[in-house]
Structure formats: C-alpha cells, structure tokens
Design brief:
Elements (H helix, E strand, L loop, with lengths): L19 E4 L4 H5 L54 E4 L5 E3 L4 E9 L3 E8 L4 E7 L28 E2 L4 E4 L12 E7 L9 H5 L13 E13 L3 E12 L3 E12 L5 E6 L7 E6 L2 E2 L2 H5 L7 E8 L1
Parallel strand pairs: 13-16
Antiparallel strand pairs: 1-13, 2-9, 3-8, 4-5, 4-7, 5-6, 6-9, 10-11, 10-14, 10-15, 11-12, 14-16
Length: 311
C-alpha cells in the first residue's frame, strides 16, 4: 500500500513527478488515442436481482469476506462427529466479514467448537452462520480477547442489530476448535432457517466489494490498473488494486470498472520510456457510501484525478 517512488511513476498523494501534462475531460479521448484499443463490452458485472423468497436464498449474495480469500468446496467433507456443514474460507486474521444480505444479527458466544459465532437472519429468510471469528487481541494467537464487538464482532455492532447487505459484521479469526489453525471463516447457508446447503455456488457468484463502510459515510478510492477503453466522459479500466480512504482498506483484485470522468476531472500523463503497456491511477471524488459504490457498478464511481503512464 506504500506509494511507488520510482522515477517517472505516479505518486499516491500528488501529481506525477516527471514530464507532466494536464488535460481536461474533453481531451481525454485524444490523449489516449493510439495508446489503447477500444474494447466493447458490458459496463460492469450484471448482478441478478431476481426477487428472493422465504423458501430459498437470494440469487446473489454479497461475498462474505472483504479482500483476498481462498476456499474449496469442502461442504460435506468428513469431520469429527458429522459431515462438514459449511465452507472454510481462508483469509488473513481480522479480515472483514460482511453481511451476505440485509438482515438481523445474533451473537453466539457459548460454543467451544464454534468459538465466537454470529448468526445473520437474512431478509430472504435464509440464515447464515459466521464461525471461528477472531478472539485475539494481538497479531499473535493469544486467545486473550472475548466474543465482543471490536474483537470478534464489528466495532459498535450490537446483538440483535439490523444490518445492510455488505455491512461489516465481524473479523475473521481462529477461535473455537480452529485455535492455532490458519485463520478462516467457516460459512454456512441455511435456506428458510432449515438444514445447511452447500454455499459454494453462492460464493462463486457472490458480489465482491471494493471496500466496506457505513452507509452514507464519505469515501474515496485509489484505483490502479490498466486502461481498456475511453470515451469523452468515461474510462473503462482493468483494476489490479484498490485502496479505500479514510477506512485504510486495501486489496489486490482483477476487475473491470467503468468510471465517469466529468469535465472537472484532472487528467495527467507521464512519459515513461521502456514501460510495457499503459498503466493508470484513478482517484475518485469523495462520495457517500452505497452498496452500488461498494460493488463498483458502472458509472457510479466518478473520477477526480486520472494519471496515465504511457509507453
């Protein structure tokens, strides 16, 4: 997350440092002419919004962990006592656990096996289990924390609170019988509050968020990647990393976004000899947090500064 200070590269908190040229939005297309290949395609991922029923989970859920995560379909795998009822999602300690859909939360702190656990009673009627949440007070496996808000559950979150889809509900850890094992979220999905079903297909199609913050709170993003296409007032880019402020959240990713470039945006170019391809850094303007913004829906994000590094 530290800025790259190499000559000819863009610095995070300021303009490019060498051979600077600034243009307005109206000449953005001309600036990029001959440097990029216009690519036809969808503005952003098409998220299914089929109405959910109380008999089955929603068609698409918010992916329940923010940032890098690895998992496999281990639902039903042999475990002591019974087949595995969820999927273990490996993630860094204290990675943010997110609400898969809007609903109501319930803390569960009395299971030696599950450790710090949270139930999410989704608006669709689906119940989600978040198991092995954090119980450490330091980066080490100290087991000195309790199953309370700020340690296991999101800071300020209260037992029984209503939450929005994508809202932070807890922190990934290794509590319970996962103690000393790689931190992970054991995630279960129970349609209509009944038996667990394999959540793999919902995880595969889940909406990965760029950042997570309270609804209505101000945010700005530092997007880095490669230009895919450009028009007079839009920029399509393949994002390879995102940093969100003031939350100080950062993650690598591979995602195509379509960003609005208004006439007030500053567009800067830096000549960098010998560099393959064209890299771009986009700072978005400060805006209130919405689920559409967290997902990066097409044309929801608005650029305030675009810095281009060409061959």
């Amino acid at each position: 997350m530290s800025p790259d200070g190499a000559p000819g590269r863009v610095r995070r908190f300021g303009p490019p440092v060498t051979r600077l040229r600034t243009t307005t939005r109206g000449t953005l297309a001309l600036t990029l002419a001959g440097l990029v290949t216009l690519v036809a395609g969808s503005a952003s991922a098409n998220y299914s919004r089929a109405p959910a029923t109380r008999a089955q989970p929603p068609t698409t859920i918010v992916f329940p962990v923010l940032g890098p995560t690895t998992y496999m379909d281990d639902f039903g795998a042999p475990r002591a006592g019974a087949p595995h009822q969820g999927i273990d999602m490996m993630a860094p300690k204290r990675a943010l656990a997110l609400a898969a859909e809007a609903g109501k939360v319930k803390f569960w702190t009395h299971s030696a096996t599950a450790g710090c656990m949270l139930y999410l009673y989704g608006a669709s009627g689906t119940t989600y289990y978040y198991i092995h949440l954090n119980n450490d007070l330091t980066k080490r496996n100290d087991n000195k924390g309790k199953c309370v808000a700020g340690t296991a559950y999101a800071k300020g979150l209260k037992n029984g609170a209503k939450v929005a889809a994508g809202q932070v509900v807890g922190y990934v850890g290794d509590s319970g019988d996962a103690n000393g094992i790689h931190p992970h979220l054991h995630f279960e999905l129970h349609p209509n509050g009944g038996k667990a079903v394999d959540p793999y297909q919902w995880l595969q199609s889940g909406q990965h968020l760029l950042f997570a913050s309270g609804r209505g709170t101000a945010f700005t993003l530092d997007l880095r990647g490669t230009v895919s296409a450009v028009t007079a007032d839009t920029l399509r880019l393949k994002v390879t990393s995102v940093n969100a402020w003031p939350m100080r959240q950062g993650q690598p990713l591979s995602l195509k976004l379509l960003v609005t470039v208004p006439s007030s945006a500053i567009v800067q170019t830096v000549k960098s000899i010998g560099k393959p391809g064209q890299k771009v850094q986009v700072w978005t303007g400060a805006a209130p947090t919405t689920l559409k913004a967290e997902r990066g829906d097409g044309l929801v994000l608005t650029a305030s500064l675009v810095s281009l590094v060409s061959k």
